[in-house]
């Protein structure tokens, strides 16, 4: 979602002229935040998830399904609906996303420290979809809200309703298939973000996704739509717009720590889990109507959101601003930061002089090498010292797999938070709740047992690359910290354990067994979630990506040519709609007996 400040966004040339002043404002605000909040203690453990949903319209007569450009009409109605709900646990906060076919829903109030809150997550997620679906069904019996990480034929053919013109003339980025009309007209900064990213980069986005080579896939495969584009690569699907990335959907979870110190520790221990949860959540095997050889969305958005100039791309270790988390934050783990990242030395020096630890100062020094791509005019020059807009704005415009979120200057209720960002959205509420609750419990395991999962950053980066590979849960090994040191382990060993490592699910089960304040319904629900994670890691249940791939490969109209036709997409999304609404079982991704006792209210 990012920082949703209202106002008129400045053009890139206006931002560029003020960059040094903006950096000074941001650093000064960060120092005020740190001075005010570095010793803050005893904040309660609160947390929450963010889900991005896709709106679609089915055409049953012609066996087609299209993206529904309706979020701008839907969101005001949802806002009014939730204003009338007095019960905070039954209230949803809805926000616009970058594209007009996506809405973001989050719990109106965060989940709390009570164990019974773990049993409310799935019910809350279900409520979100029900609120949207009720409105859609009142308008049409062919419109639906779906949990899909990437619309299979996004950018191919007539893929929206109402139809949009696809040509360079209808795109600020001169894209052939992703026009500006996809962008949300009510999101305060997306259009400006796309324009400024493109202008700063000096070229339009160029994303190349490896094709899945089936028996009838042309050798080499040429993406014919882009035959005149010098940036295409043989045997790759081509995407040519930042909007191609912003149309993807994810699951994010944010945790508030007890203190600054605890937030840094939590950040460092969650960092190695980013590729692990990315792998387990994989849900994106299809891009622009072609079956690809990857399973996840992360690297695609990383390329789409990349604002580096041609010269900056030549710089060593200066990656896209949307990338795997580049460093640990605590001084005790700085030896694991084995990839030297560029930093703004003057910023680092100033932060250290003001008392910030060196490793944390380097993290923020790296943040401040980035330019703020969006600035609202009314915030250009601060009028007082009561808010931290420029720091928060820049921090929100650097999209790593983790984000450290210090308390805002103008909100004393918020503490130090860590946002976990890599996961693809799952097609069922059960799947999203399972990963969310598993991750929440892992934070408790980390803090309670003093778990050390850290490995060198270079190995985390390699794990991120491996997590994208086709069927990586069953085919890949990942660097992981066991009791005998860092070793390569398969997903089953990491999650379910070996002789040298207990396993993440057994550790969570130990934590649950030692808690006497967990009621029977919550224990039962948690165990169903742990079973899903365990069986998915063992390969006895499929990731969403593997199931989608199998569906395409076994479809009667599939011609072994890597093409996902309109008919295949229609049948696939119809099946997903049936599964997500409980009208059909899918034993390959969830055993029918995996039912939960989830409810909206904690007790």
From TrEMBL:
UniProt key word Nucleotide-binding: yes
Entry GO CC: glutamate-cysteine ligase complex
EC numbers for this chain: 6.3.2.2
Reactions listed under catalytic activity: L-cysteine + L-glutamate + ATP = gamma-L-glutamyl-L-cysteine + ADP + phosphate + H(+)
Domain of life according to the entry: Eukaryota
Pathway assigned to this chain's UniProt record: Sulfur metabolism; glutathione biosynthesis; glutathione from L-cysteine and L-glutamate: step 1/2
Alphabetical list of InterPro entries matching this protein: GCS, Gln_synth/guanido_kin_cat_dom
Keywords: ATP-binding, Glutathione biosynthesis, Ligase, Nucleotide-binding
Enzyme class: ligase
UniProt-annotated stretches for the region Disordered: 584-603
Pfam families: GCS
GO process terms (BP): glutathione biosynthetic process
A molecular-function term among this protein's GO annotations: glutamate-cysteine ligase activity
Protein family according to the UniProt entry: Belongs to the glutamate--cysteine ligase type 3 family.
PANTHER family on file: GLUTAMATE CYSTEINE LIGASE (PTHR11164), GLUTAMATE--CYSTEINE LIGASE CATALYTIC SUBUNIT (PTHR11164:SF0)
Name of protein: Glutamate--cysteine ligase
């Amino acid at each position: 979602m990012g920082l949703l400040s209202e106002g008129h966004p400045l053009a890139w040339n206006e931002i560029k002229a003020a960059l040094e002043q903006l950096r000074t404002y941001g650093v000064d605000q960060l120092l005020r935040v740190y001075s005010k909040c570095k010793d803050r203690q005893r904040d309660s453990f609160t947390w929450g998830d963010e889900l991005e949903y896709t709106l679609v319209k089915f055409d049953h007569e012609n066996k087609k399904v299209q993206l529904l450009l309706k979020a701008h009409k839907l969101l005001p109605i949802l806002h009014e609906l939730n204003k009338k709900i007095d019960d905070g646990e039954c209230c949803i906060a809805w926000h616009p996303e970058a594209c007009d076919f996506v809405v973001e829903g989050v719990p109106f109030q965060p989940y709390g420290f009570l164990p019974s809150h773990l049993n409310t997550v799935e019910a809350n997620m279900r409520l979100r979809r029900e609120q949207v679906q009720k409105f859609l069904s009142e308008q049409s019996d062919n419109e639906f809200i779906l949990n899909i990480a990437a619309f299979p034929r996004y950018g191919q053919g007539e893929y929206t309703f109402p139809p949009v013109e696809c040509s360079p003339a209808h795109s600020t980025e001169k894209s052939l298939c992703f026009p500006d009309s996809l962008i949300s007209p009510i999101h305060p900064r997306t259009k400006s973000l796309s324009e400024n990213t493109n202008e700063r980069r000096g070229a339009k986005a160029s994303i190349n996704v490896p094709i899945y080579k089936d028996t009838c896939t042309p050798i080499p495969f040429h993406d014919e739509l882009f035959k005149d584009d010098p940036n295409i690569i043989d045997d790759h699907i081509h995407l040519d717009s930042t909007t191609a990335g912003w149309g993807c959907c994810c699951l994010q979870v944010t945790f508030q720590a007890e203190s600054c110190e605890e937030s840094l520790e939590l950040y460092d221990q969650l960092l190695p889990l980013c590729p692990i949860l990315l792998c387990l959540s994989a849900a994106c095997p299809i891009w622009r109507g072609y079956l690809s050889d990857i399973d996840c969305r992360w690297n695609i958005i990383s390329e789409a959101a990349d604002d580096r100039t041609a010269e900056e791309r030549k710089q060593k270790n200066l990656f896209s601003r949307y990338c795997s988390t580049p460093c640990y934050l605590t001084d005790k783990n700085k030896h694991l930061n084995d990839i030297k990242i560029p930093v703004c030395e003057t910023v680092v020096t100033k932060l250290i002089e003001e008392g910030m630890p060196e490793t944390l100062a380097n993290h923020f020094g790296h943040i401040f090498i980035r330019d703020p791509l969006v600035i609202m005019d009314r915030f250009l020059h601060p009028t007082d010292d009561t808010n931290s807009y420029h720091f928060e704005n820049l921090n929100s415009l650097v999209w790593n797999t983790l984000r450290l979120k210090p308390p805002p200057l103008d909100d004393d209720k918020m503490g130090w938070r860590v946002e976990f960002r890599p996961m693809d959205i799952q097609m069922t509420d059960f799947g999203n709740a399972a990963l969310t609750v598993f991750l929440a419990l892992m934070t408790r395991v980390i803090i309670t047992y003093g778990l050390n999962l850290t490995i060198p950053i270079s190995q985390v980066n390699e794990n991120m690359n491996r997590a994208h590979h086709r069927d990586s849960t069953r085919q890949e090994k990942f660097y992981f910290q066991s009791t005998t040191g860092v070793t390569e382990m398969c997903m089953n060993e990491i999650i379910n354990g070996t002789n040298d490592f207990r396993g993440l699910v057994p550790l969570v089960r130990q934590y649950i067994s030692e808690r006497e304040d967990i009621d029977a319904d919550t224990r039962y629900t948690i165990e169903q979630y742990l079973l899903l994670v365990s069986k998915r890691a063992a390969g006895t249940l499929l990731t969403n990506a593997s199931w989608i791939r199998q569906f395409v490969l076994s479809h009667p109209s599939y011609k072994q040519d890597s093409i996902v036709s309109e008919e295949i997409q229609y049948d696939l999304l119809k099946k997903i709609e049936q599964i997500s609404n409980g009208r059909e079982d899918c034993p390959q991704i969830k055993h029918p007996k995996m039912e939960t006792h989830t409810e909206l209210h904690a007790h």
